[in-house]
Amino acid sequence: MAWAFLDDLNPEFFPDPNTSDPTGLLALSADLGAERLIAAYLRGIFPWMKMDQPPNLWCWYSPDPRMVLYPEEFKVSRSLKQALKNELFSIRIDQNFAQVMRNCASISRSNQPTSWIEPDMEKEYFELHQRGIAHSIEAFQGDNLVGGLYGIALGKIFFGESMFHKVSEASKVCMAKLIEIARTEGLHFIDCQVPNSFLYTLGARAIPRKRFLLELKGALQNDNSVVDWSSWKQNIG
Asked: What is the pTM of this model?
């Protein structure tokens, strides 16, 4: 198929997500841009890696099926339950967003030789963080950041982007905090993008793209996040 090329004259334009190729690839662009990123998430689309060869265009995806985690279906493993009970980590929200992204970009992953999180992506998402759209949940031991996750919050959805851990259970504890927020504030689901074995252990499941887009539309009737993130940041222990 011929993928759409996105230009800066109309940064909010995206083709119909249902027209993506079998891998989920829908469009290409030279740049990201804050307005384009917001428009993408509102349509169930996300950027995922640059092409390996020049001109190294950004690839925009809307995969079928789509991995989601409904808050009520979150699974707490025995090890996570123990970590929560023993309060192994101090949890913070939106206090170290840039460091969380940097760690997600640099952490070694066995199934992934290089990171898709490029420096320009870090810059663009940090702008969204400053605008109150992108958020991070962080796990600390003492003064050491040992785990975290980040993503985009719009309407009743949290679009999870990436997570990391340097100490066992650290990222899962961050996910448990996100689930607490989701249940308290009435989030519909957490978008996990593409299936992997780790996400299945947390209770996430794959749903058809058509169902994902339908539920997304209902949960984004107001673009602003239903979560008062500043309140959670102030009240965090």
From this structure: 0.94
